[in-house]
Every structure is written in C-alpha cells, then in structure tokens.
Amino acid sequence: MAWLILNHDELFDNLGEPSMSVREIDAMAALAPMETEFATTAAVRRLATGEVGLTRAVEGLALEDQIHTLAICTTVILLEGYGRGHALKHVDAETAEYDRRGCPKPHTIT
User: Fold this and answer.
1) Could you tell me if 68 and 32 are in contact, meaning their C-beta atoms sit under 8 angstroms apart?
2) CA 86/CA 94 separation, integer angstroms
C-alpha cells in the first residue's frame, strides 16, 4: 500500500479523481490511533470544503499523520473506484509490479 500512496496522483488520473466520501474516510480514520484520526478528519474537512487539495491538506501534519491520511484516502479511493474485490486485486498487482522492479520494501514508522 505504501507505494500506491506515493503514486496517488496516478491513481487519481486513472480513476478521474473520484470523490472521496467524508463519511467513508471518517469510518476508515476511526481505525487509526486517536491522534491520527483527528489529524485525518481535520485535513479531510479542509479538502471537503474546497479550501485546499489533498497534498496541501496534509502538508501541515506530522509525517506519520501525513502517511496515515494519504493511506486512508487512497484506500477509500480504491474502494469507491474499484469496489472491494477489484481494489484488492489492484493492490496485489501493484505490489507484484514493485517487487518485480526490485523496489525496496517500505518500512514501518515507529
């Protein structure tokens, strides 16, 4: 999933920048630690009001929260754009492609 986050612009291009349901993002964010949930919902509110785009909405967040917020938004985009089954296939195909190209595996932030 980490490599997909890095390519979220390409994903937007492929899917025609699908709308991200704030309700779905809030539900996904609720699975993260409370601080991350708050940071994500604050960034998404700025995005939903049209105040800023996704990149600008997360740039003021701590790095860990930026990554979590982009992961949450990317997950929602994939689910809304492809549906659950195809979203999982897309993630698997992208992961296999990064492995084939010899990209280093992302590491967890601690």
Assistant:
1) yes
2) 12
The pTM assigned to this predicted structure is 0.69
Q: How far is CA 80 from CA 41, 73, 85, in A?
A: 18, 10, 11
- Residue 102: predicted pLDDT: 83
How many CA atoms within 13 Å lie on the side-chain side of 53?
5
* Structure token digits, residue 47: 């995005």
Residues of the chain by 3-state class (helix, strand, coil), percent to 5: 70, 0, 30
Query: Any residues with CB less than 8 A from the CB of 73 and at least 6 apart, and which?
Result: 8, 20, 25, 44, 54
